[in-house]
Amino acid sequence: MKGGRERDASPQPPTARMSSLSVNTGHHSASVSLLSGAPASPLLESYHGTYQSMSPMPSPLLLPTGHGSSHDIIPVSPIGSDYEGYGDGKKKSRRARFHDPVDDAARLAKALKGERRAPETEPLIEILPGLTHEQVMELRVEYKRLVKTGSERKGVNIAKHIRARLKDEDPNLMKACYAVALGRWESEAYWANFWYQGDKTRRELLIESLMGRTNDEIRAIKEGFSDKKYNNSLTKCMKTELKEDKFKKAVLMVLDEQRMEETDAYGRPTRIDYDLVKDDVKDLHHAVRSEKGGESLMISIVVQRSDTHLKEVLRVYTDTYRANFAKDALKKSGNLVGELLAHILNGVINKPVRDALLIHHALSASKKDQQRRELIISRLVRYHWDSRHMAAVKVAFRERYGAELQTAVKEATSGEWGEFCTALCVSRMPDHVKRIERVDVVR
Q: Which residues face 147 on adjacent strands?
């Protein structure tokens, strides 16, 4: 805070009155040149972000991800395993749930029904955290078929219904439920769109939703963006809301979908261009050693190269100069550009460890500033979509902090939104694994 002024509260997702809801009970049938022309780098702008607040700086501590890493862990919880209850310290039996979009839609419709009574939150906490992206999409289709509104009997979007019904409840629970109900890509578009609506210092939400993504992922996020003010164009939104500097150029570069591909048109790994690696290493070393400038060159390389290429660049840089480029880049770039470079490079070095660090950072930051709870929600929702990655993050968290991720989240949160966040950490057995063939016993 400056001058005794308090920060504005975080904006809520926009809510609109939803009336006349009913449940149908019937049967359901560029690059450096562009950057160099940008105004002064935002490195001079005061910005205390995620990586600046971590101590010690994480990137030099991470070990490269190799074969046989924690990615090989199968994220399966045994049927009938115990699930530690929230708050009361008692263990509750957690039975395995089979996803049934018809049943789930009916239960959630009943929980959200009405406007004069508070919504039932227990079904939201029980159902939503355990759904995959594909299952959320199935649920949304079924919910629209089941719940209608208005004289035209238009199907209701469950995410919007959750937003409208929970707007007067716990805002953190509403954000968590809403983000999951949006699905994997629309939720990323939501976080990318969220930061500018209120406190514009929270650009981690924007950085983490976009940086280090493949072109296909960026395309899916752009398709999931919805804001009539910008004609549903995330690119137009960023062009309008971000001020003219190199950070903006980096964001627009990502949205241009020109990142080097990891595979060719046939799905085969792209061969590493070692001449380009050599050139990049030389250019990056020059950039970090130059007294002025250099950020444009670092952005153009780090943002546009693939993870595989960057991993080789980091290796050759170390072999050539006996130095760690990630560490050198963070020394060179202390604020917004440093944040986006650190996020991409730490993901290249070891994504599970990076994300374990980010969760720990969010849990710690939220104790001092409740508005930082958005970081807990956005990060847990993001990681939970990929069950194998979430399993690797949990292993990395345990190895680094000596605690189970689920326990740490439970202890750092409270109330129903805490229950929801804790449930996001539970690895669930996929439906195809849980199917049991009928066996005839011969006596």
A: 23
